[in-house]
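Hey,

Quick one before I head out. I ran the complex with magnesium ion overnight. Inputs first:
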Amino acid sequence: HKWVYDFTEGNRELKDLLGGKGANLAEMTNLGLPVPPGFTITTEACQAYLASGTAPAELAEQITAHLTSLERAMGKRLGDPSDPLLVSVRSGAKFSMPGMMETVLNVGLNDASVTGLAAQAGGNERFAWDSYRRLIQMFGKTVCEVPGEEFEHALDGAKRAKGTTNDLDLDAADLRALVDTYKTIFRKHTGRDFPQTPREQLDLAIFAVFGSWNAERAVLYRRQERIPADLGTAVNVVAMVFGNLGPDSGTGVAFTRDPASGAQGIYGDYLANAQGEDVVAGIRSTVPLQELEKLDPRSYGELLGIMARLEEHYLDLCDIEFTIERGKLWMLQTRVGKRTAAAAFVIAGQLVDEGLIDLDEALHRVNGAQLAQLMFPRFRLEHDVAPLAAGIGASPGAAVGKVVFSAERAVELAGEGESVILVRRETSPDDLPGMIAAQGILTSRGGKTSHAAVVARGMGKTCVCGADALDVNVRSRQFTVDGQTVREGEVVSIDGTTGRIYRGEVPVSPSEVVRYFEGSLDATESGDPLVQAVHRIMAHADERRRLRVRTNADTGEDAARARRFGAEGIGLCRTEHMFLGDRRELVERLILARTDADRQEALAALLPLQRNDFVEIFREMDGQPVTVRLIDPPLHEFLPPLEELAVNVAVAQERGQDAAKEEALLTAVRRMHEQNPMLGLRGVRLGLVIPGLFAMQVRAIVEAAVACARDGQVARPEIMVPLVGAVQELETVRTEAEKIIAEVVGDSGVEVLVGTMIEVPRAALTAGQIAEAAEFFSFGTNDLTQMGWGFSRDDVEGAFFWRYLELGIFGISPFESIDRDGVGRLVRIATEEGRAARPGLKIGVCGEHGGDPESVHFFHEVGLDYVSCSPFRVPVARLEAGRAAI
Ligand code: PEP
Ligand code: MG
């Protein structure tokens, strides 16, 4: 089995096997770009190692073979005392997990080769000792779990002794002494000396990178990003090139376009005389990449050429990492870069304009989650409110919350339901839980490529970074800026687009994209590249999609908004929502009525109210289908709470008051009380038990439709029966409904369909029978999930889903995204058998899943006719339905 690939053997298609970094290093190698030679150990080797605890048998041999050819290519041997080859050992999974896994640089250095390295570098002893101390530090921390702070304290101590804060002021002797201190720390924690054999260093580093796949923060990141837990990481062993050889060396990162806005240009950070992770970690302040033009015009020119070449090759925004070693440029990484939601749309549009991709591809490159983000509200500043400070807008959004200074505190307060803004000088992977818990992230250091910025963008979380006017004091839990002090618990507002930070709470207003969808902003006139890109891509999605998109709406107002958002009808109007508020008493009277007369009275009072509701909705949806579901309340929602009532009665009796009415009510409520209301008298069951209820609703619906028709409008009612499990239930309701329909419709020309929800597993499994009596199906995936799994939808998410997610029993709550294998199977069966019994049967979905991007793809695959979701998710569903069709 082949476990190791040379860079010349791979290509970008092999991400599964070589990880993103390895595949792209191979791709760049094959493009003839200056990549240091190296090889990649596959993700399969990692999987095998993690499964069995030992490396696969042939791995060592294959590493030896590749190392030998690497040595040959470089003309040096690993750790050779007189002229050592050094290598970096870098993680690289299929999906980028910035900073989550490990990397060890300078492998091959030891007490002897450090001298050889100095000689190799023209007698640069400082460089050699600096490289050695970095190796011990990284190796100690990563491979042997030596607490990183110990090394950091020692480094700080050395700087303090020298009276400096800049590590560049430490000379060769200082660093040599520091190496001794580091070795002592290493020995203290590991009980052994720092390994001097280069090959042992290499092997241990490789296994440590394998192991870092399961580091806590990596596990957490994967869960957040929904990256499967079993992929494993590849390991790249690359010949070292040095950015810390002096002022003519350095290291940097760059984007071929602005990852925040999508604007074209040169974006990046450069740090002279520095190695590897210094830039990303924000250890020292970087300079904008443009400055490199002055420092090293030749490398700068070459870099720009390579960036253009990469864009042309990948047909997309690329981000890169590079190092300059004494004026020679080396490419250390590239990948299709992460970007903000806005940039994704803008760049996709630009690439279409540039003729590099077509509209299908543009549609493929954006997604519903990004669109949802663009619909977030923005800050509304009534007058010129002076910001407290400004940093770099690293990830857009408007976040308001209480300031906290540690991940722990963020998690704690968020757990109490507070919104928090996590403020740090810079973040590290250890801050991840706090970043997840926070509403927004604010740092005083680091640029657009800092850890905070990269991770926040990935999570779609608002982030302002590099606000260097802020003096953040984590220990005293406060920051000062411009003479003002902001303490833990005070509220700030941060704008991830402009980078501005405000004291107190700034009100928010709808985003441009929402204003565009609502029709108050014209795409062509606005001149806003984002709105124009959204307009164009949405139009293409609409052209491509086969699924129709309806909305769940119970009021005229919601219906109107959804229609502006592009809804093509209503897929679910929950009539029980129309019985709340003032009308609740009428329903209560109806449910508890003991005599026919009482019941008739309650129904007669409800009828006109219902009719008006429907008129309003039909008007807004003129010409579009409107699915009205007959009442489906869990009974307890309409009855006074039993305990409260019992207490009231007891109190009244105690006081000798006349409580006859309350007592009667209490008796009735007791009679109707249910242990499991969700599995009780609801939906069609209630309709069959309470005479006249469904009939009243059917009459109200049809009368409203006829009234609209008389006004010249087209009302297309679809009457839907909830919670059906057996065809007989539906038939009973239908027979009664048809009589009323025939009577009310008369010669108005109104067409009324009668159909059913499929939300009880039995209905899905007997869909063939049910279809005989139904003119349409609509999947109620909320109840289908509830009853399919036996999970109470109101209780379980907070109770134990965290554990299920942790154990990987599911990757996401099945109430959020359809469980394809189980509940999805019921959907498939019902669709197939329903259509077999009634060809052309119209089928949709109206559970929450109708607006979930992943689920929309599933419903497209199954062949449903439409999805229905809340008004705000209509654009997301349109986009995803388009994406599903290409
Ligand atoms: C469903 O069960 O998916 C559904 C749409 O109905 P409700 O959420 O009202 O129970
Ligand atoms: Mg339901």
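The chain has a mean pLDDT of 92.

Talk tomorrow,
K.
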